[in-house]
Amino acid sequence: MFPPPTAKEVVEKTVAEFGRLDVLVNNAAQQHMQTDFTKIDPAQLVSTFSINVFGYFYMAQAALPHMKEGASIINTSSVTAYKGSPGLVDYSSTKGAQISFTRALSNQLVSKGIRVNAVAPGPIWTPLQPATFPGEKLEKLGDSVPMGRAGQPCECATCYVFLASEDGSYVSGQTLHPNGGVVVSG
């Protein structure tokens, strides 16, 4: 069934509990290492896009009827949207789709006073990393960024707080990059 009832249920429970909905943070993803592009099977592709892209659409669609002027939608993307990752082709593709989704939805909602932005972290120590990478690759997580280390979730948190707050009231359609100093464009 599309969209899944989960998005609507989550939004309805939130509104019932708090009486309103001011901020939506889309932050769900899966990634699977696959160094041979031809071995990304259809089931993996559908699953990755379903969670990483379709889920963002469904949550925003469920939330919008409850959001008023001044509200904010923040989509979590990744540095891979800008530089790609040879072992994460399907994941990188979904992250690029999230950036395009952010920009397009921002253009549509700006006249309603609802801001839409993204955060595109670099290597961050989250449960997604050990679930994806083998030990030897995990040990080197973050070594390739200019700061020479992986970041911590708290080093991304201020990006979300800024975009959700009144301090970010003049920012929409943009992406913040807590990524250890990797210079990206686009």
From TrEMBL:
Keywords: Oxidoreductase. GO terms for molecular function: oxidoreductase activity, acting on CH-OH group of donors. The keyword Ribonucleoprotein does not apply. Pfam families: adh_short_C2. The lineage of its organism: Eukaryota, Viridiplantae, Chlorophyta, core chlorophytes, Chlorophyceae. This is Uncharacterized protein. It comes from the Eukaryota. Belongs to the short-chain dehydrogenases/reductases (SDR) family.
